Backbone:
């Protein structure tokens, strides 16, 4: 087990997933896709200029390119000539192919090959050290990622309420004097910076999984923004740790394994999450169907009691056919309703109890509420 | 053929077929706002390719593409569950599927590398594509599949048209929305799968999206749009292939994508009617005219002038837009017509 | 006295199509005013132009004689319910607190006083028991109450509301109207985009009838006539504005 690789993996996961929460909430996940591809052009251009792969100029140049991508996409779709998704697709393929061409034409023999930037190799990051005053502090990537994480953390902590309101209700924010445009570009700058920082470790494509995966997983189980942020960090930690462990045990590429684990974690939570998960929803729907059936039974009794045809309609044997239910279905609902004391049987006649009457009133109120919610 | 080498002719045929079919079918994808679904599906093919290789231990294109299709369909299945059964934001789910599947592909690729299969080098070429190494066999596959897609498109022409335009109305006619959705998914996957061999999983999006955007700028008619997109896709693919052949090692996919990008920007800026440049000029002219004609508009809305504005009407008096009766300024029919022209045609 | 809300010569156009055309109107202080008109009449655009959310081509908007910049702290805005993501991970009291963000100022956190006011506003709209719920777990009417509470703690003098009764049950609508009337009684001015013609007389004392142009505006009793309603809602009314 190599602690340094693990540390880089964890720090990459933490830094990327922090900003991801806001990207998901602002429906900008696919913009990340564009940015992560186009910062390659920024890196290439900056590299042509300074001739070094470790210069901070690369970080600045690539970050600028990321922000310009966001701006370019916005200009294109605000022109109403092209939808946002198509604008993203056009911009990133254009800038990405430009960078691939420059690389193949200019740097065929240089240490900048496409596989490397596209795919990233977390295992190699530990060879680049951060030395200061003759002392070796550790892998450079760890500190670069840590720097990105810290900036994002401070940014979110300081401007928490501004970020929240510009994400939730930009119109109100601007009425209150908090500029949504300013925060949009601040966020895009940080996202680009983080994506560039993560480039060496995980590459252009997997960084998307690390940015988006933990937040959408966290959103399945949390109800406030602070909790979403915290849970997303915990999930990122888990994914990085598990990804590293599996990757090194099975001798697989660690970044790819981390992305795979991120996807699997999400799928598991999507199925199993207590309220918003698939199982939970199926279970709830089934319960609703049963409750609806019991309510129908009770209403049937309420409608026919004290009427001339009551003797026939409310006969314990005949009710199933009046409701057009199968006998087994009817028996199960009847047992359930009697267990809850909603109704009793007197002389083979179904009779409502006070509890049953109260239940149906409550049920109707709830149904009306739910209907209103559906209509809006 | 035309003095081209045999290899180049083969490559040219392949890319032109691919460009034409992905361009024309891309129109449906772009109009349905599914442009990035294509991107996600393309990335999602990678694990399938690698698994197919692990199982069959061959690099035969049929098997690898079969694997690609299976994993893209699996990704689509998950996306459908996401969309219909959960509240998860669809774009975020799509981004995760895209990158997660791609990561899985890389993980499997590293497994293949570990087992030391020498031929694995051929697998990573799917990421950026490699048109230059296309064989006659590959082109046969591409052209057969392209023709099939084209035939399906023609066969379901009116259904595709209506479904793309108004899926709800489509369903009220008693036609199966689900069938159409599946058909479109299947065709999208097919195009992506035959495209990755040539331009790679990242840039196939350019071939799907860009021709449709260009064609839309040039035409308002559906059929013409599709024909134009197909034509643009095919032409650009041809030019790109020839350009990349002029220099050794110039990758075809990126050249084509770059050309398409430039054309999209040009079409959006300069296209005859929908071009931003003309639009901006016209809008500016019109808005200036409104600002300048403010006094006349006031007269139109308020019947009579306010006293302090008298000076402002001098020029309109001269043009005959305004007349004076009993010392009161009134707008003439000619002036009314001028104001109504400024209001814009959608106004009334 | 200056009117609470004054619009002069306002024209808004998107590309070559005018959305609002030469709007002149005044809303006096202390009224409950309705803006009514068919779909696409520019009701929301009028509010957005007033709040500096869209840029007008010509014209100006004044609040008590002053421009928006000088008055924005005295103005509250309730957007259409559909304009936000109700799935956002945030609670009822959090959303209400957002109304205070302008007062709290940059970077600073809400203090005890802010929380007291937020809870008070929730009490006013009968939503106090729901304050810890996630906003997706509310009915349409309850969501609208939360939005209203959020506007209440802005402590504004002028309230703009965009379709506050949309997707709301009758009971909530009555409660909201009572609240708006009590705002008016305490001297506030309330301007509401509304689409239900049947309730205009009952709810408002001032009305602006809009269909890209101002068709009529003034006290409900004198302005809200059958003739004006026809002119507002029939599309050819635009032509009938022609004189002679």
Residues:
């Amino acid at each position: 087990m190599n602690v340094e690789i693990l540390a880089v993996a964890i720090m990459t996961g933490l830094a990327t997933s922090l900003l991801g929460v806001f990207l998901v909430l602002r429906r900008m996940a696919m913009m990340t896709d564009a940015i992560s591809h186009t910062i390659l052009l920024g890196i290439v251009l900056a590299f042509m200029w300074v001739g070094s792969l470790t210069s901070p100029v690369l970080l600045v140049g690539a970050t600028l390119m990321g922000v310009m991508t966001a701006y370019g996409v916005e200009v294109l779709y605000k022109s109403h000539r092209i939808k946002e998704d198509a604008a993203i697709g056009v911009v990133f393929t254009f800038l990405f192919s430009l960078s691939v061409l420059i690389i193949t034409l200019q740097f065929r023999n240089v240490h900048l090959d496409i596989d490397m930037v596209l795919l990233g190799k977390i295992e190699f990051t530990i060879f680049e050290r951060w030395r200061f005053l003759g002392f070796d502090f550790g892998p450079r990537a760890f500190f670069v990622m840590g720097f990105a994480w810290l900036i994002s953390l401070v940014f979110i902590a300081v401007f928490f309420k501004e970020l929240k309101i510009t994400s939730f209700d930009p119109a109100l924010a601007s009425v209150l004097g908090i500029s949504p445009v300013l925060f949009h570009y601040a966020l895009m700058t940080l996202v680009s910076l983080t994506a560039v920082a993560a480039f060496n470790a995980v590459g252009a494509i997997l960084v998307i999984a690390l940015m988006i995966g933990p937040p959408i997983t966290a959103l399945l189980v949390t109800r406030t923004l602070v909790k979403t942020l915290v849970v997303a960090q915990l999930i990122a930690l888990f994914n990085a740790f598990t990804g590293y462990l599996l990757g090194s045990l099975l001798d697989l590429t660690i970044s790819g394994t981390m992305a795979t684990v991120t996807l699997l974690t999400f799928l598991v939570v999507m199925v199993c999450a207590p309220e918003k998960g698939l199982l939970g929803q199926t279970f709830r729907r089934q319960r609703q169907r049963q409750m609806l059936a019991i309510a129908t039974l009770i209403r049937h009794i309420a409608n026919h009691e004290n009427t001339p045809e009551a003797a026939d309609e409310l006969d314990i044997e005949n009710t199933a056919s009046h409701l057009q239910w199968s006998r087994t279905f009817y028996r199960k609902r009847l047992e359930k309703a009697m267990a809850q004391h909603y109704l009793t049987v007197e002389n083979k006649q179904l009779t409502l109890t006070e509890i049953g009457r109260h239940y149906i009133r409550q049920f109707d109120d709830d149904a009306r509420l739910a209907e209103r919610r559906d209509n809006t | 053929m035309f003095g081209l080498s045999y290899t180049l002719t083969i490559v040219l045929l392949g890319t032109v077929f691919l460009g034409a079919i992905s361009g024309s079918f891309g129109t449906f994808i772009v109009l349905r706002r599914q442009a990035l679904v294509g991107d996600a599906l393309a990335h999602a093919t990678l694990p399938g390719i690698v698994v197919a290789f692990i199982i069959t231990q061959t690099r035969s294109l049929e098997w690898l593409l079969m694997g690609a299709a299976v994993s893209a369909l699996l990704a689509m299945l998950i996306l459908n569950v996401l969309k219909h059964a959960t509240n998860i934001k669809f774009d975020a789910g799509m981004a995760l599927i895209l990158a997660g599947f791609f990561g899985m592909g890389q993980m499997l690729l590293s497994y293949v590398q570990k087992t030391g299969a020498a031929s694995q080098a051929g697998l990573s070429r799917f990421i950026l594509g490699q048109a230059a190494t296309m064989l006659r066999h590959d082109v046969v596959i591409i052209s057969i599949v392209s023709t099939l897609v084209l035939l399906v498109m023609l066969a379901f022409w009116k259904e595709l048209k209506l479904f793309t335009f108004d899926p709800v109305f489509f369903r009220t006619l008693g036609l199966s929305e689900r069938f159409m959705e599946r058909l479109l998914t299947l065709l999208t996957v097919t195009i992506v799968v035959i495209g990755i061999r040539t331009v790679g999983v990242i840039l196939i999006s350019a071939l799907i999206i860009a021709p449709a955007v260009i064609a839309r700028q040039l035409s308002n008619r559906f059929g013409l749009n599709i024909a134009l997109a197909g034509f643009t896709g095919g032409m650009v693919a041809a030019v790109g292939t020839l350009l990349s052949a002029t220099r050794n090692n110039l990758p075809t996919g990126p050249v084509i994508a770059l050309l398409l990008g430039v054309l999209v920007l040009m079409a959006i800026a300069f296209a005859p009617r929908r071009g931003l440049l003309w639009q901006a000029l016209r809008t500016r002219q019109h808005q200036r005219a409104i600002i300048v004609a403010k006094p006349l508009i006031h007269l139109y809305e308020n019947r009579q002038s306010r006293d302090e504005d008298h000076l402002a009407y001098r020029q309109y008096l001269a043009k005959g837009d305004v007349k004076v009766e009993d010392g009161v300024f009134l707008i003439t029919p000619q002036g009314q017509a001028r104001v109504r022209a400024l209001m814009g045609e959608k106004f009334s | 006295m200056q009117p609470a809300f004054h619009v002069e010569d306002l024209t808004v156009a998107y590309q070559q199509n005018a959305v609002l055309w030469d709007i002149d109107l005044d809303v006096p202080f202390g009224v409950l005013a309705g803006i009514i008109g068919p779909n696409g009449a520019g009701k929301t655009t009028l509010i957005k132009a007033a709040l500096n959310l869209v840029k007008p081509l010509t014209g100006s908007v004044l609040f008590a004689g002053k421009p928006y910049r000088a008055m924005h702290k005295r103005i509250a805005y309730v957007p259409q319910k559909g304009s936000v993501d109700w799935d956002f991970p945030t609670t009822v009291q959090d959303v209400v607190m957002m109304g205070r963000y302008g007062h709290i100022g940059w970077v600073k956190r809400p203090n005890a006083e802010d929380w007291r006011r937020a809870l008070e506003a929730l009490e006013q709209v009968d939503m106090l028991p729901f304050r810890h719920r996630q906003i997706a777990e509310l009915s349409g009417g309850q969501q609208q109450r939360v939005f209203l509470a959020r506007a209440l703690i802005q402590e504004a003098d002028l309230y703009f509301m965009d379709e506050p009764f949309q997707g709301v049950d009758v009971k909530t609508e009555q409660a909201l109207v009572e609240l708006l009337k009590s705002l008016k009684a305490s001297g506030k001015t309330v301007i509401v985009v509304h689409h239900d013609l049947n309730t205009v007389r009952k709810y408002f004392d001032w009305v602006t009838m809009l269909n890209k142009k101002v068709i009529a505006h003034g006290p409900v009793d004198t302005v809200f006539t059958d003739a004006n309603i026809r002119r507002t809602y029939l599309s050819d009314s635009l032509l009938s504005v022609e004189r002679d």
User: Anything to note?
Assistant: DSSP finds eleven helices and nine strands in chain C. The interface with chain B takes residues 9, 11, 13, 15-18, 21-22, 57-58, 87, 212-213, 235-236, 238-239, 241-243 of chain C (CB under 8 Å). Chain C has a mean pLDDT of 88. Residues 23 and 52 of chain C are 16 Å apart (CA to CA).
